Amino acid sequence: MARRTGIITRTAAAALTAGALTACLPASGTDDGPGAVPPGAKAECPAVKAPGDSRHRQLRGMWIATVGGIDWPKGKTEKGQKDDYRRLLDTAQAMNLNAVFVQIRPNSDAFYPSPYEPWSQWITGTPGKDPGYDVLGFMLKEAHARGLEFHAWFNPYRISRQADLNKLAPNSPARKHPDWVRKYGKGLWYDPGLPQVRELATNAVMDVVRKYDIDAVHFDDYFYPYPEGGAEYPDQATYKTYGQGLSKADWRRRNVDTLVRDLSGAIHKAKPHVRFGISPFGVWRNTRNDRAGSPTDGALQSYDDQYADTRKWIKEGWIDYVTPQLYWTIGDRPADYAKLVDWWARQVEGTDVELTIGQAAYRVGESGPWKKAGELSRHLDLNKRHPAVRGDVYFSAASLAGNKLRFAERLRKDHYGRPAIPPVVRGRGGKAPTPVQGVQAKAGDDGVKIQWRPAKDADAYAVYRVEGQKPACAPVDPATLVAHIREGGGILDRAAKRGTTYTYYVTALDRLHHESAPARGATVAAAGG
User: What is the DSSP track for 430-441?
Assistant: First the structure.
């Protein structure tokens, strides 16, 4: 993944026109009592169907890179770090995003108390130093409180961006097992051919899966390192021991395949609702090398250069989503964004793997088409031609917050005017929860307060708003969504126009985004006029 720094401006959230909903409100009280609706309870509107899938269902995310403090953390104090992180989430909310991809294991280290690896140097500046708080626990809680999915981003093999083992924390596995380590380029890497290395990566991931309420495990594009200066990766001795007659390239791909396959099985066995997704380099192979490859020419190939056979992982169903990093413009000669979107859309056909596109927000302002504020908006326009594309993720948070050329405002105006519910996760079970009950709407000077009795088997709620007095029992139009929250039993709609009558409908969702039918709607006239 490209590593570029950005500047978080103080006025970013204001410039992006923050959303009009406050934090979650408590559930309402009704004649039936204030308790939650039990699973299987009778629906208030049994004849009304659930909304179902639509083009309005999208995953909208941003990467929060922590290696080198690219996006976060900038400060060294706990308060400063927490304030900076909250500001990044404010940007996500202002943009009507619904997911963050947060790097919590950038260099075989941890942003949480780990029995396997030291605290990350990027938190305090000192490898292994305890920051005094559970960083991941804080980040996860803040994201969920804003209705944002949390994708825990791990790097499986990178140890350090410098080559001196002695500069690592004393309890680093790399210092305890220097025979697992390979120097390549300017940094240190674990050898993916060693079973002990795959075991360490798996243990690190599964420790987080079991202890934290994350929504997904996320890998980026770093498997075997990117080639540097034509130098060969120094794993000849490992290959001699474990190669088993395969060519070195096929053996390396088998090493990465093994980690991906086994980790996928472990994640879904421990917590079936936790997804596993990967964001590979945008070119698998060029057609010059493989008829099954993309119509690109001269681009680096993840299959050959990083030994990452992403296409196989899709076909085998080892991953739940794929987010190729398509960091080129429409019409780029070596790698045309339009042709690559088409190619990736065809790869997920007939599978349960969700396709989202990695977008290069960091490139806005560079030469050529990137000098136009609307280039990324054009990308999203093009994506609409491909129903298989279910959303976009931006690298990175600092670039969105920086809002160079006001491109983020343009994205929000053109594409993100309303919030969105992520698509249903296919192939992992789940079902629509019991519908909520007792929806109430009350007008006040600060907006319209909507509350309801939550469902015990629900993990999130969607609120829809229609202008005028509408039937109490009616299907909802996905285009009328005004809020998608994970906690609480109500919202405050501050965007309601004074003196206007609205009808509000509420649905419940499970962890994999299956949605219930709406409860009986509530009609109210906003105060004033």
Answer: ----PPPEEEEE
